[in-house]
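quick q for whoever's on today - can somebody do inverse folding on this one?? i tried earlier but teh output was garbage lol. tokens:
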């Protein structure tokens, strides 16, 4: 079994992704990402890696504020949204870990997700472990 981890390569998100990779590694589940594309074009290479995976975890974190700073409404990276849409459109097992305040676009409003708060990732990691045990092992 193999999981594709979709995430932004920013510093704070890389730390979260590393924790997720450790979680899957502890379960002997290899993780594939969009990093180090060996010079290939981004979109076809990422699609190939997604298509060659048994499941996908999308890490949807805060990128752009949607509203007044007094409100907690954000968008995640458009690349994560694109990869997640590709996964869902092709019927693969997928789940999004969604940071508090992220808005989920129309077609994925009712998709299964795991909410998380950066200050306490334990519940999200446990939820992801339960999800992956049911879906991709």
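ok took a stab at it. sequence:
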């Amino acid at each position: 079994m193999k999981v594709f981890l979709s995430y932004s390569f920013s510093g704070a998100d890389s730390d979260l992704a590393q924790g997720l990779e450790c979680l899957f590694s502890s379960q002997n589940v290899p993780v594939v990402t969009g990093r180090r594309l060996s010079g290939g074009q981004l979109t076809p290479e990422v699609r190939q890696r997604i298509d060659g995976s048994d499941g996908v975890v999308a890490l949807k974190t805060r990128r752009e504020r949607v509203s007044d700073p007094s409100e907690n409404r954000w968008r995640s990276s458009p690349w994560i949204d694109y990869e997640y849409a590709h996964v869902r459109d092709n019927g693969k097992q997928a789940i999004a870990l969604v940071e508090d305040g992220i808005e989920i676009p129309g077609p994925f409003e009712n998709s299964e997700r795991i909410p998380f708060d950066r200050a306490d990732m334990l519940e999200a990691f446990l939820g992801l472990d339960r999800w992956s045990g049911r879906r991709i092992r």
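fwiw Residues 95 and 111 are 8 Å apart (CA to CA). also Strands lie at 3-6, 31-32, 55-60, 64-65, 74-75, 93-99, 113-116. so keep that in mind when u check it
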